[in-house]
Design a protein that fits this description.
The complex is a heterotrimer.
Chain A (H helix, E strand, L loop, with lengths): L14 E5 L2 E5 L5 H7 L6 E2 L6 E2 L12 E4 L6 E5 L9 E5 L13 H4 L19 H13 L14 E13 L3 H12 L4 E4 L15 E2 L2 E2 H13 L4 E4 L2 E7 L3 E7 L14 E13 L3 E3 L12 E3 H11 L6 E6 L2 H12 L3 E7 L12 E3 L2 E6 L6 E5 L5 E4 L3 E5 L2 E3 L12 E3 L4 E3 L8 E3 L9 H18 L32 E3 L4 E2 H9 L5 H8 L12 H12 L3 H4 L11 E2 H5 L11 E2 L3 H6 L3 E5 L2 E6 L8 H14 L2 E4 L4 E6 L3 H8 L12 E7 L5 E11 L2 E6 L4 H15 L6 E4 L4 E7 L3 H6 L18 E6 L3 E6 L8 E7 L3 H12 L5 E2 L2 H11 L45 E8 L11 E3 L12 E9 L4 E9 L8 E6 L4 E8 L9 H4 L1
Parallel strand pairs in A: 1-7, 8-9, 8-15, 9-12, 15-28, 17-24, 18-19, 18-24, 19-20, 32-34, 35-45
Antiparallel strand pairs in A: 1-2, 3-4, 5-6, 5-7, 10-11, 13-14, 14-15, 16-25, 21-22, 22-23, 26-27, 29-30, 33-34, 35-41, 36-39, 36-40, 37-38, 38-39, 41-44, 42-43, 43-44, 46-49, 46-51, 47-48, 47-50, 48-49, 50-51
Helix pairs in contact in A: 4-5, 4-8, 6-7, 9-10, 9-11, 15-20
Chain B lengths: L1 E4 L3 E4 L4 E5 L13 H10 L7 E7 L7 E7 L5 E6 H7 L5
Antiparallel strand pairs in B: 1-2, 3-4, 4-5, 5-6
Chain C lengths: L4 H9 L17 E7 L3 H12 L6 E4 L15 E2 L9 H18 L10 E5 L2 H16 L5 E4 H7 L14 E5 L3 E2 L2 H14 L3 E3 L4 E7 L2 E7 L2 E10 L5 H6 L7 E13 L7 E3 L6 E4 L4 E12 L7 H14 L7 E13 L5 E4 L5 E5 L5 H18 L13 H4 L16
Helix pairs in contact in C: 2-6, 2-9, 3-9
The chains are: A alpha+beta, B alpha+beta, C alpha/beta.
Chain lengths: 981, 95, 416
């Protein structure tokens, strides 16, 4: 019910919203939880295991109970905490994990069966018959488990990412955070103040005491106003710092549009900020913990501070009559605040016999709540008085205070482990905090407002002093400075179930059972009972569980220890972690210089790493890709074809020692290569396995151009830089990657020269005599355009590769097509390229698969033994040079029209298809239009000695089994006459 | 992580590619007598310490320097960053 | 005590008074026939099979912290045997077969769920490689199935079939792959070993090996010297640290691999899926959380935690594959220490020190290997001969050039 006055809500404005099919009204400033409570709704969810009715437990992000499905369709968001959702007009939320309805949930039967469903019961049963686990038990369990649902529709909203830098990051805008920001802001430091709430001020918004003769929330508002006026401070409300990573990098999520029906045009839903900071001050406050007692989980039972927050900040009381159950003085403050706001407090139940009295209600000192009633919401509690008598009280809400846990999570994201502090009966930050982090206020166990303000100011000054920024301590405003008085009390003893983890339904009994069965280490306790594994990650439950375990083992809580706090502090949407890198923008697309031209031709493109390359160029009338590819191959071999090969890596190598350097990088010799000549080179990894192949052309005595495969352009460059800087640092050699600086086209086929002669400027003679196979030169084309020409051939035809600065790439392809029209020049894509290289038996990525050696590739003799080049030595290891080593061979099907599947394994005819009979595998296969037959290449044990033998290429996976003949991999023009023509 | 590049100042570790133990600088002579054993040791065996580790990082999306970074493998604290070329020279490597 | 549905009901009706500790908490004896260093999945499985299958006695497992606290307690729970190379596939298939009967064998429900694993294909070259792998699996007696794009779509209609940067072209499925409740594996083996007399000693850290005349006599621990006829080390993640105490350097680096779980969801993902154009693999636990992982961070680390770039990279992979994940919230990120070996494959072998045996180098593959690793290590410890499926996992394969490099990445551990 809404109280008549007060609260930080805009009573003038009404917002309409729907929950569980019913419409309600609330106000700006409300959360979904406060608005529901204002409308008398206490039942908001169901628990995970027993499907017990659940209402709010907290008023913040630690809420384990009031989880709803928010919005719908591509925006449906499961497990959203009603306590942090800002109310907006038109909000729609549905209950989750309840069927058929929230009020009547069929699976609440589990609650009746709870004696059978104790911690870990599933480890002991469901094993017979074996097949039933997957067929019967598991599907039932899976359906019953889980919390909310997603629709699987793509998320409708966008997310952004950004970087922020500052001197001081302050996490939490409560009293200590605000005071720290004020201190640091006035000193001129670059400050970020981040707070998860939509209204900064922290607990100040939920308290009634005053600061400097004004209401605490008013002081907060004024302070925030001063801070907003400082240009060096960035205030970030609705921003959760979720993780402390290495070297002062923090992850934070800003919820830009979650408080709106839909994000405004052009705005993201959320932003992931990576905050790079010199120093961090954690002012994250503390979280109140409950006390376990029988049936302490009914809707209407919540932490005392939550009850206080609902009354003070939102002017809402969950019921007309309430009670408070506490073991510390803070519970008294709750009672006093409620009374002051006109809520009837039936009693203040304090476990301490010596508790001080409070005016306006009856104090039951030395008493305990031993049971509660109310199926869908609290109707009454039973109190056991100090004298042993019991008393029943009719109340609709109960505030429980078991003390406060400093919010230490972020202090533990690296190596920090908190230490037990008897004074507050809680864990406080201890050693090994993330470097640069300090803690102030309630987060370090300083619970009074004065201590928080003082701590914030002092810690800020200290952090800035560290950074050589002069800062002065401000005059602190007057504020309350009450001591912390608590007598630890964790659970009321009894036979009935008393909840520790409200979401996962872990009770004191479960902890006892875990102890009984030997699961006593805190990590075993957690994993066996699921204590602390709920969506609040133990914020409301762990402490109680540890305390009960400590009691059982006879150890102290300090000895028992905690489980590890891990990121994220509160759950983070996957969408914001991915940002814009989704869908077609998952990774960058690199386009070749001829891309737009190829698009105009209607090319089909294929992803090659990040590149998009033309795969083939369909012509009107062609109905299958094979038709196009066969045509491209025939046209190239019959006249001339052109292919964009820009994606191949290019590395410029210059310096006096360039030749000597390449001689060590390639396993074959390069020091004697003449200027104006190109050589095929094979690079090995240091372990002797083939790394990459390509060519190196010598443009001048001290200048080479190295090409690599597309896939290895980056790794080869990195490798060469390693060799240059680390292995031979005094060689005179310089490297630069020029892959994207040059557009390069392969022009291949018997008419290639004729075509080129139309482009190359007359000063350059490219006749066969002047420019033979494996020649290279820097030339000009098209009246002065600088170019490089290499007479190399991947297709096996008379072929050239012509490179021009990338900006001329588009123009060049158009000129080539124009000039080549008379020869019917045909553009070809990666498919035809692949067919022609298989026809020639050239190795490519499928053969250079990271496990094959020069010997396997038939290039064993290239490995020079006369020099120390990378990989030479280890390539000679026994296991890489066995007599039955794999050799690259050609494969022809007995029936030319039967395809050989790539990935098939080679077996003797008649041999059983088992691993022991495996002789090798097919790496690359295609239809050869040149031979009118399917062909393939692959690796065969001792293959060189098996030429002419008949074997099988068996692919049981695809249901193929093809009789094949072993042949040379050089299917077309084995003598190489064409390429020298 | 942030690597304080000796030439460029603090750079995000995302700009770098990691290789491993800096002893990979100390490539044996492939033509030497006992080269096989030396190469096996060089390429395959690692100290892999829990603590200070000198390791090679390549500034691939930066100035393309190889660096030797001294980083604690337990805390991730970086205590020293050097140009690998300088380290290589100090280890006697030249041409 | 035998676990059964009947027993659960009986205990429920009698107040759960009868349950006993799943394992004892014995003090260490002065000496044992066999001491296993490391109370993780592999160490516990080794002890279990030593006692059960190889009839060994006087066995202890020594654990510096709590059992099951290493990678068996922090993995992404996937089991599969979809390997390609001769050195690996028989071993992992043996392991999968052991998973299939494990729960009945050790009388503990580890929730072995053969819901299938699907590796997606995004390019022709990838399909060729997967066909080769699938055939290798079949040749080794495992199951494999090649799916077309449409077949994948029928099973996983919500994957990105619209605007993917790397469109899904098909997949290689292994229907017998799946998931297991990881902690329960450690507990099941521990309980089974304990029942067969194995002493499981927690909070006992090995501080050194006592080696005399080239023979290992036992281990120095934080609870005193423990003599042993044979010592088997199974401490993947910390292998280098522990074996350094025996003066050994290993072909291993320690790296951090992060793993992730989301808030609980109603069932959405039937099996395990692996993205082929980015590093992302995912399944849904019986409790409802999506459990997923990606690349290792890539630098040597013993910190059991990683950094933000990999978290973002993995989320990008997840969203690229499954665009409906946007509003699912990541609940927890943790890190484990991977024993990344020089060829991506493990080592189960004797050392040059008599009586000292080693099991490690599991890279990502440790969890699925747990049963076979335990069995094969037990075989080696008991018989001094490698198990037939683990003959390739030798120390000297690097020196001799018999590498088992599934990914073809060479001596660069962070790329395996």
């Amino acid at each position: 019910m809404r109280l008549g006055t007060g609260g930080q809500i805009d009573r003038e404005t009404k917002l309409s919203f729907r929950f569980d099919g019913r419409y309600y009204k609330g106000h700006p400033g409300d959360t979904l939880a406060s608005a529901l409570l204002a409308n008398g709704v206490r039942l908001m969810g169901r628990s995970f295991k027993y499907h017990r009715p659940r209402g709010v437990l907290t008023a913040g992000s630690d809420e384990p109970n009031a989880l709803v499905e928010l919005r719908s369709g591509g925006r449906q968001e499961p497990n959203t905490r009603a306590t942090v959702i800002e109310l907006f007009d038109g909000l729609r939320a549905e209950p989750q994990n309840a069927w058929p309805s929230l009020k009547f949930d069929a699976l609440a039967i589990n609650d009746r069966l709870s004696t059978f469903l104790t911690a870990g019961f599933y480890y002991k049963t469901f094993m017979w018959p074996a097949a039933f686990w997957e067929k019967l038990y598991e599907p039932i369990i899976r359906r019953a488990a889980g919390l909310g649902a997603i629709t699987t529709k793509p998320d409708s909203d966008a997310y952004d990412k950004g970087f922020l830098h500052c001197d001081l990051l302050i996490i939490g805008a409560g009293p200590s955070g605000l005071m720290a920001a004020l201190t640091a802001g006035r000193a001129g430091a670059r400050v970020i103040l981040a707070d998860e709430d939509f209204r900064m001020g922290g607990r100040l918004n939920a308290e009634t005491f005053s600061i400097s003769d004004m209401a605490a929330s008013e002081w907060a508002t004024q302070t925030i106003a001063e801070l907003s006026a400082l240009p060096n401070i960035r205030l970030m409300p609705r921003t959760t710092v979720f993780g402390a990573f290495d070297h002062g990098i923090y992850g934070a999520v800003e919820r830009v549009s979650d408080h709106l029906p839909v994000p405004p045009e052009g705005k993201p839903r959320q932003i992931l900020w990576r905050i790079y900071t010199q120093r961090t001050l954690l002012c994250a406050g503390a979280l109140e913990r409950p006390i376990a007692f029988a049936n302490n989980d009914r809707p209407g039972i919540m932490t005392a501070s939550a009850l206080r927050a609902y009354v003070n900040r939102w002017a809402v009381s969950p019921a007309e009559t309430v009670a408070v159950f506490t073991n510390n003085d803070d519970g008294h403050r709750t009672a006093a605040d409620l009374i002051a706001r006109g809520v009837k407090v039936a009693a203040l139940i304090d476990t301490r016999p010596d508790a001080a009295t409070v005016s306006g209600t009856e104090l039951l000192a030395g008493a305990q709540v031993i049971d509660t009633t109310g199926r869908l919401g609290l109707t009454g509690i039973t109190v056991k008085l100090a004298n042993g008598q019991t008393r029943k009280l009719a109340v609709g809400a109960l505030g429980v205070s078991g003390g406060w846990n400093p919010n230490v999570a972020l202090t533990c994201h690296q190596r920090g482990r908190p230490a037990w502090d008897e004074r507050i009966a809680g864990f406080v930050p201890a050693g090994d905090l993330p470097p640069g982090m300090t803690v102030a206020g309630a987060a370090e166990g300083q619970f009074s407002t004065h201590a928080a303000l003082a701590g914030g100011a002092e810690k800020a000054v200290r952090a800035l002093t560290d950074l050589d920024i002069e800062a002065t301590l401000p005059v602190l405003p007057d504020s309350e400075d009450a001591p912390t008085r608590i007598t630890p009390f964790w659970h009321v003893k009894g036979d009935k179930r008393a909840w520790l983890d409200f979401q996962n339904d872990v009770t004191v009994k479960d902890v006892k059972l875990a102890h009984q069965e030997g699961f006593r280490a805190v990590e075993h306790l957690k994993r066996y009972t699921t204590l602390g594994m709920a969506t609040d990650q133990g914020k409301t439950s762990n402490m109680g569980g540890l305390a009960v375990m400590a009691e059982l083992t006879g150890q102290t809580i300090a000895q028992t220890g905690t489980t590890i706090f891990r990121p994220p502090y509160t759950p983070v949407a996957m969408g914001v972690l991915a940002g814009r890198s989704t869908g077609a923008d998952f990774r960058p697309s690199r386009l070749t210089p001829s891309h737009h031209w190829a698009q105009e031709q209607g090319a089909v493109f294929v992803e090659v790493g990040q590149w998009l390359r033309a795969q083939w160029f369909p012509r009107p009338g062609e109905t299958t890709w094979r038709e196009s590819v066969d045509r491209e191959v025939r046209a190239t071999r019959g006249s001339v074809g052109v292919c964009d090969v820009t994606t191949l890596g290019k590395i410029d190598v210059q310096g006096r020692d360039a030749a000597a350097f390449l001689n060590r990088i390639y396993c074959n010799g390069f020091d004697k290569l003449a200027v104006g000549r190109v050589r095929y080179g094979l690079m090995l990894r240091e372990d002797g396995i083939a790394f990459d192949d390509g060519t190196a052309g010598r443009l001048a005595e001290d200048h080479f151009v190295v090409t690599t495969t597309t896939a290895n352009a980056v790794p080869v460059y990195r490798h060469m830089e390693f060799a240059r800087q680390c292995l031979w640092p005094d060689m005179d050699v310089q490297l630069i990657s020029t892959t994207e600086a040059w557009a390069q086209y392969a022009i291949a086929g018997p008419k290639a020269r004729k075509l080129l002669q139309k482009l190359v400027d007359p000063a350059f003679d490219i006749s066969n005599e002047a420019f033979p196979f494996m020649a290279c030169a820097e030339i000009t084309i098209c009246n002065g355009c600088p170019a490089r020409l290499f007479r190399i051939s991947f297709s096996g035809e008379l072929a050239y590769e012509l490179a021009v600065p990338t900006r001329y790439g588009d123009a060049l392809i158009r000129r080539i097509m124009e000039a080549g029209a008379e020869f019917d020049v045909t553009p070809y894509g990666t498919e035809a390229l692949g067919v022609m290289r298989i026809e020639k038996g050239h190795a490519a990525g499928n053969e250079l698969n990271g496990t094959t050696t020069a010997l396997n590739l038939g290039l064993g003799r290239m490995v020079s033994t006369k020099k120390d080049s990378i990989g030479t030595l280890l390539s000679r290891r026994e296991g890489l040079t066995t007599a039955d080593a794999l050799n690259l061979v050609g494969l022809r099907p007995k029936d030319p029209q039967v395809r050989i599947p790539a990935g098939a394994h080679l077996l003797e005819k008649g041999a059983k298809a088992v691993a022991a009979n495996d002789l090798g595998y097919v790496t690359s296969a295609c239809y050869s239009p040149t031979l009118g037959s399917y062909i393939a290449i692959g690796f065969l044990k001792n293959g060189q000695a098996r030429m002419g033998e008949s074997l099988r290429a068996a692919s049981p996976l695809t249901g193929e089994d093809v009789e094949i003949e072993i042949v040379s991999a050089h299917f077309v023009d084995p003598e190489g006459e064409r390429l020298r023509a | 992580m942030i690597i304080n590049h000796p030439l460029l100042g603090p750079c995000d570790a995302q700009e770098f590619v990691y290789k491993g133990d800096f002893r990979l600088i100390d490539r044996p002579d492939g033509m030497a007598e006992s080269a096989e054993a030396a190469f096996f040791d060089y390429l395959y065996l690692r100290e892999n310490p829990a603590g200070a580790h000198r390791e090679l990082w390549f500034h691939e999306q930066g100035d393309r320097s190889w660096l030797v970074v001294t980083r604690n493998t337990v805390t991730h604290e970086i205590t020293n960053v050097e140009l690998a070329r300088d380290v290589a020279r100090s280890m006697g490597r030249s041409r | 005590m035998r676990y059964s549905g009947f027993r659960v009901i009986k205990e429920a009706l009698t107040g759960h008074k009868g349950w006993r500790p799943a394992w004892r908490e014995p003090d260490p004896q002065p000496n044992y026939d066999i001491v296993i260093v490391g109370g993780g999945g592999h160490g516990l499985a080794t002890a279990y099979y030593l006692a059960k299958e190889f009839r060994q006695h006087r066995i202890a497992v020594i654990e510096k912290g709590w059992i099951g606290g290493g990678n068996v307690g922090r993995n992404t729970t996937i089991i599969r045997s979809n390997y390609m190379l001769d050195g690996n596939e028989p071993f992992y298939e043996f392991s999968l077969k052991l998973w299939e009967g494990l729960e009945q064998d050790f009388n503990y429900n580890a929730m072995v769920s053969q819901r299938g694993i699907l590796n997606l294909i995004h390019s022709d070259a990838q399909r060729d490689a997967f066909i080769r792998r699938g055939n290798a699996m079949i040749l080794n007696g495992a199951d494999a199935e090649l799916l077309s794009r449409d077949q994948v779509r029928r099973e996983y209609p919500f994957l990105n079939f619209n605007d993917a940067r790397f469109p899904i072209q098909g997949g290689l499925a292994q229907r017998r792959g799946g998931t297991v409740r990881h902690d329960a594996v450690a507990w099941g083996y521990a309980r089974g070993a304990d029942q067969r007399g194995v002493d499981i000693i927690q909070n006992c850290e090995v501080t050194g090996f006592r080696i005399e005349n080239g023979k290992c006599m036992g281990v120095e621990t934080s609870r005193g010297f423990i003599g042993a006829g044979k010592v088997g080390v199974a401490v993947a993640g910390n292998s280098s640290r522990v074996m350094a105490m025996a003066g050994m350097r290993l072909p291993i680096e320690s790296h951090v691999l992060q793993a992730f779980v989301t808030e609980g969801l109603k069932p959405v993902l039937p099996g395990v899926i692996t993205f082929g154009a980015g590093h992302f693999y995912c399944s849904q636990s019986d409790k409802g959380g999506l459990v997923f992982g990606g690349d290792i961070d890539g630098y040597n680390s013993y910190a059991q935690r990683g950094n933000l770039p990999v978290i973002e990279d993995v989320a990008e992979g997840g969203m690229a594959l499954f665009p409906g994940l946007g509003r699912v919230r990541l609940l927890r990120v943790w890190g484990g220490i991977m024993d990344m070996s020089m060829d991506g494959s493990p080592i189960i072998d004797r050392t040059d020190i008599d009586g000292l045996y080693f099991n490690g180098g599991w890279c990502y593959g440790g969890f699925k290997a747990t049963p076979a690793s335990g069995w094969c290590f037990a075989h080696l410890l008991a018989t001094d001969q490698p198990h037939p499926t683990a003959t390739a996992y030798r120390f000297d394969r690097f020196e001799r050039g018999y590498l088992i490099d599934e990914k073809g990445m060479g001596a660069q551990p962070n790329l395996h």
